[in-house]
Write a structure and sequence with these properties.
The complex is a heterodimer of chains A (274) and B (194).
Chain A: H1 3-26, H2 32-50, H3 60-69, H4 71-77, H5 83-107, H6 116-130, H7 141-159, H8 163-190, H9 198-218, H10 224-234, H11 251-271
Helix pairs in contact in A: 1-2, 1-8, 2-3, 2-4, 2-8, 2-9, 3-5, 3-9, 4-9, 5-6, 5-9, 6-9, 6-10, 7-8, 7-9, 7-10, 7-11, 10-11
Chain B: H1 3-19, E1 25-42, E2 46-52, E3 55-61, E4 70-76, E5 80-81, H2 85-91, E6 104-114, E7 119-128, E8 131-147, E9 150-165, H3 173-176, E10 179-193
Antiparallel strand pairs in B: 1-2, 1-3, 1-10, 2-5, 3-4, 4-6, 6-7, 7-8, 8-9, 9-10
The chains are: A mainly alpha (274), B mainly beta (194).
């Protein structure tokens, strides 16, 4: 792997995430522009790795690019909405993405019972997402939890033969790492960070959900238990009551440790197949 | 005329009529006697090789005017065999052959150019991973004769080579993983006359 590859894979996303975090802390804490920028950043990461899709889309990889392009639109439309409406919108985006992905094999008469897994995942995630986390109480909960989820999904993707998707998820982890780092630096400097707008993390959730739908629809050789543990990670942003009482600077590490406790078994279960 | 000579003449007539093809004969690809293999540079260390085990198709072969012939072949993309189950799984993933979405690789000839007594270039549309591109196969017609144990079954055989670029079919990750992207294809095909 050359220097250029490392820049695309890690350095650029970290810098981009850090930049988003800095802008959020210094200027646009609750801003539609920032939410759209987060959506565009996620879509840009995908396009950097997979290239521009043809029109019309031919394969699932191309369809995902178009689905991710809808993230900034989702960010704008759901910006002022209640949590349950945001969850419903996200469920619609994920369901449309899933139907679009399986359309080709389905019309050819091929049905895979494994497709019920992404549908079940969406059904479980939506009620969880409807309870929005209070970011002012712990600004690290969501970024670190989603970073852990993205990294675990990256390993699952690589083990499932989704080499390109694994790289995308790794870069997404780097983006979230840079974002969390910016919040951490401001916390070190000012004692307490500005609370960001919930739509920043909702946009990240949307990106992860779309990528997860692709992964679970086509990587059917992965352990079902590994997916269930991935769901556990999705619950982390909402299980922060006790961890939020820890000193602010300790919180990101506590959340990361908790995420690893769920993520490592997921990866080991997937490894069992190989 | 002796009995022997009458028998010999009859036998010769029978054999000649059973091997002489009509204007265009239909053949079915004999799957067990067809090898579609390929090789691709593996980071410059060596050429990685593989084959597809499940190949079927039909050939219309006009020996008098080969330009009137046609070929239609279907390859099950999941039948890839590179001597490693893990590698076969990876190559069948979304970044490469994408077998879940595109379970078949097809080749349909569009025109044929005769280049010699037993050689021709067969142009056709190769469709792989949802993308169709014209490719040219350099084909040699090796032989046609009845099966030794069944004179009523006529088999014909061809060898062909082609060079394709995997990135032309959207497999852009090939280069990132040190493969190709140029893929050398070698085919040995036997077909039975219907």
């Amino acid at each position: 792997m050359g220097a250029e590859d490392i820049i695309v894979l890690l350095v650029a996303p970290i810098a981009l995430g850090f930049g988003l975090g800095v802008v959020e802390q210094r200027a646009f804490a609750a801003s539609r522009v920032l939410v759209v920028a987060m959506g565009l950043a996620i879509a840009a990461i995908y396009l950097l790795h997979e290239g521009l899709p043809p029109f019309p889309a031919i394969s699932a990889k191309h369809k995902i690019a178009y689905a991710l392009a809808a993230l900034p639109v989702f960010g704008l439309v759901a910006f002022d909405q209640a949590s349950y409406r945001r969850a419903a919108l996200l469920a619609i985006v994920a369901a449309i993405t899933f139907i679009w992905l399986v359309q080709r094999p389905l019309t050819a008469g091929r049905f895979d019972w494994g497709w019920l897994l992404p549908l079940g995942t969406i059904a479980v995630w939506m009620p969880m997402l409807a309870k929005a986390p209070d970011l002012s109480r712990s600004p690290f909960t969501s970024p670190v939890a989603h970073l852990a989820m993205s990294m675990t999904a990256s390993v699952l993707a690589l083990l499932g033969g989704f080499l390109g998707l694994g790289q995308v998820l790794l870069s997404l982890s780097a983006l979230l790492g840079g974002y969390a780092l910016a919040i951490f630096v401001f916390t070190l400097k000012n004692g307490t960070p500005k609370p960001g707008h919930p739509m920043m993390i909702w946009t990240v959730q949307g990106g992860l959900l779309i990528l997860f739908v692709q992964l679970s629809t086509f990587a059917t050789n992965l352990s079902t238990a590994a997916y269930l543990l991935l769901l556990t990670l999705a619950a982390l942003p909402f299980a922060d009551a006790k961890l939020s009482r820890l000193p602010l600077l300790v919180q990101p590490f506590a959340f990361a440790a908790l995420a690893l406790m769920a993520g490592i078994p997921a990866m080991l279960l997937a490894l069992r197949n190989f | 005329m002796t009995l022997f000579s009458r028998t010999a003449i009859a036998a010769a007539l029978f054999l000649s009529t059973s091997t002489v093809a009509t204007a265009a004969d239909l053949y079915t690809v004999h799957e067990d006697h067809t090898w579609v293999t390929f090789s691709v540079s593996h980071a410059g260390w060596a050429n990685a090789r593989g084959m597809f085990r499940n190949v079927s198709g039909d050939i219309t072969f006009d020996q008098d005017d080969v330009t009137n012939s046609s070929v239609s072949v279907v390859i099950a993309s999941e039948s890839l065999d590179t001597n490693s189950e893990q590698r076969d799984r990876d190559m069948g993933g979304a970044d490469f052959l994408n077998v879940v979405e595109f379970p078949e690789i097809t080749f349909d000839s569009t025109r044929i150019e005769q280049t010699g007594e037993r050689t021709a270039i067969v142009y056709g549309d190769l469709t792989m991973v949802g993308v169709s591109r014209e490719v040219a196969l350099d084909v040699v017609w090796n032989n046609e004769m009845p099966l030794p144990w069944d004179a009523s079954t006529i088999k014909t055989g061809f060898s062909a080579t082609a060079t394709i670029d995997g990135t032309d079919f959207g497999m852009n990750q090939l280069v990132a993983f040190g493969l190709g992207p140029v893929i050398e294809v070698e085919i040995d095909l036997e077909a039975l006359r219907k």
